[in-house]
Design brief:
By secondary structure, this protein is of the alpha/beta class. It is built from 11 helices and 15 strands. The chain has helices spanning about 50-65, 95-105, 140-150, 165-175, 215-225, 230-235, 240-245, 245-275, 295-305, 325-335, 340-345, and strands spanning about 5-10, 15-25, 25-35, 45, 45-50, 70-75, 80-90, 115-125, 130-140, 155-160, 180-190, 195-200, 200-210, 280-290, 310. The strands form 4 sheets. The protein has a 5-stranded mixed sheet with strand order 3-2-1-6-10. The chain has a 5-stranded mixed sheet with strand order 13-12-11-14-15, with helices on both faces. A 3-stranded antiparallel sheet has the order 7-9-8. Helix 4 (about 165-175) packs across helix 11. The longest helix has 29 residues, at about 245-275. It is globular. The protein starts with 6 loop residues before the first strand and ends in a 7-residue tail after the last helix. The chain binds adenosine-5'-triphosphate and magnesium ion (MG). The site of adenosine-5'-triphosphate (ATP) has 21 residues, from helix 5 and helix 6.
Length: about 350
C-alpha cells in the first residue's frame, strides 16, 4: 500500500522516534529526526498503561520539531503480531484477498474474528502449483488501542506496519541488499528484539523476542539498589563520569552477563531459522536499536554466531543538511532510528 508523505512514528517502550524523509533528485533526504523519552511504565509488556500520557508525548514530539504534517506510519511488534510464510495453491492477488481470511484460520492461534489479516505473495511459482505467501496477522484490540492513542495526539495514522519489515526497509534504503548471501537484521530495543533474516535479497524469516535493554536496567537497579531512572542513567552515561568510582567496571560486568543472555535468545531464534531453511549460513549481522550499544552484545554475538556483526546506520545513505542537523549527535542516535526511518520510507512511494 502506498501512502505518500507519511512520517515514520516509532512508538517504543522507552522512547518515541519521529523520522521524515523526502525524495530529491540527488537521493533520499532526511527532513526530520528526533526522539523523546517516555516515562517508565507508559508502556509495559507491549501494553499501553498510560494512554493520555503517551498521546501527550506524541503531540510534544511534533510540536517541538514544528512538524505540521500529521500523516504517519506506525508499527506493531511482539506478541500482538504473527508473521508466517505459508504455502498455498497458485492464485491471483484478488483470489488471495478473497480467501485469506478463511485460509489464515488454521495458522493463527487466536480467534480469527479478533485479528486483522494481511497477505503478500512472495514467490508466485514455488513449484508444483504452489506459491509462497507471507501471512501477517495482528490483534485488532492492540491495533485499535494504538490508533486511538495516535489519533488522540491529533495525528493521522495512515499505515500500520510491523517493526521487522520497517527494519528491512531501513536496511534496503541504506545498504546494497546482498543477493547471494544471508544476512540477519537485528534491532535490540528496550523490551523487544526484532529479527529479520534476509536471504537472497528477500525477507525470509522474522521473529520478535520480548526481551531487550530493560533487562540490564532492571539488573543494575537491583544490584546497586537504585531507582529505575538512575539505573538507566548509569548504563547510558559517558564512561568518564562513572570511571572515577569503579562503578563503571561493575556496570560493564553486569552488562556483559546480561548481554550473554540476550545473545542466547537471539541464537535460539537463528538456530530455529537455520533448522528450517536452506540458506542457513548467516554471513553478517546488522545490529540496531538502543540496546545494541550495550557492552558485550556485539562481541558476544560475533563469538557465538561466527558472523561479522556491524552497526546498521539508518542514515548511511541519506542526504543530510549539516545546517539543519548536528551531525555528531545524529550519528550518536543512529542506532535507535532504524525503525522510524524504515517507517518513514513508506512515505516515499510504492512500498
Ligand atoms: N549507550 C547505551 N548503552 C546501553 N544501553 C543503551 C544505550 N543507549 C540506549 N540504551 C538502551 O536502549 C534501549 C532503548 O532502545 P530503543 O530506543 O531502540 O528501544 P525502544 O524502541 O524504546 O523499545 P522497544 O522497541 O523495545 O519497545 C533502552 O533499554 C536503553 O537503556
Ligand atoms: Mg523500538
Amino acid at each position: 500500500m502506498a501512502a505518500k508523505n507519511v512520517i515514520g512514528l516509532d512508538i517504543g517502550t522507552s522512547s518515541i522516534k519521529l523520522a521524515q524523509l523526502k525524495e530529491t533528485k540527488k537521493g533520499t533526504q532526511l527532513v526530520n529526526f528526533d526522539s523523546i523519552m517516555l516515562p517508565p511504565d507508559t508502556i509495559r509488556d507491549g501494553q499501553v498503561m498510560h494512554a493520555p500520557q503517551l498521546s501527550e508525548r506524541i503531540q510534544e514530539i511534533f510540536s517541538l520539531n514544528k512538524v505540521r504534517h500529521k500523516k504517519v506510519a506506525v508499527s506493531l511488534s511482539g506478541h500482538s503480531v504473527i508473521i508466517k510464510k505459508i504455502s498455498l495453491p497458485e492464485m491471483t492477488v484478488e483470489e488471495l484477498e478473497d480467501s485469506i481470511q478463511w485460509e489464515a484460520e488454521q495458522y493463527i492461534p487466536f480467534d480469527i474474528k479478533d485479528v486483522f489479516v494481511d497477505a503478500e505473495i512472495i514467490n508466485p511459482n514455488a513449484g508444483q502449483g504452489q506459491m509462497d505467501v507471507l501471512l501477517v496477522a495482528a490483534k485488532k484490540a492492540i491495533i485499535e488501542e494504538m490508533l486511538d492513542v495516535v489519533r488522540d495526539a491529533r495525528v493521522d495514522p495512515q499505515v500500520v506496519d510491523v517493526d521487522a519489515f520497517a527494519l528491512y526497509n531501513a536496511f534496503e534504503l541504506n545498504y546494497p541488499v546482498p543477493v547471494e548471501e544471508t544476512v540477519a537484521l537485528i534491532n535490540v530495543g528496550a523490551a523487544t528484539i526484532n529479527i529479520n533474516v534476509v536471504a537472497d535479497g528477500l525477507s525470509s524469516f522474522t521473529r520478535d523476542i520480548t526481551v531487550g535493554g530493560n533487562q540490564l536496567t532492571e539488573e543494575i537497579s537491583k544490584q546497586f539498589a537504585v531507582p529505575w531512572e538512575e539505573a538507566e542513567h548509569m548504563k547510558t552515561s559517558s564512561e568518564t563520569t562513572l570511571s572515577m568510582s569503579g562503578v563503571l567496571r561493575e556496570v560493564q560486568r553486569i552488562s556483559e552477563r546480561v548481554s550473554e543472555n540476550l545473545v542466547s535468545e537471539i541464537q535460539r531464534s537463528l538456530d530455529f531459522f537455520a533448522a528450517t531453511s536452506m540458506n542457513a549460513n548467516i554471513s553478517s549481522v546488522y545490529l540496531s536499536g538502543g540496546a545494541a550499544l550495550q557492552s558485550g552484545l556485539i562481541d558476544g554475538l560475533e563469538r557465538r554466531l561466527g558472523a561479522e556483526v556491524r552497526a546498521l546506520n539508518p542514515f548511511n545513505n541519506l542526504i543530510i543538511d549539516p545546517k539543519k542537523f548536528d551531525l555528531a549527535s545524529l550519528q550518536r542516535t543512529a542506532p535507535v532510528a532504524a525503525i522510524a526511518v524504515g517507517l518513514a520510507r513508506r512515505g516515499l512511494g510504492d512500498r
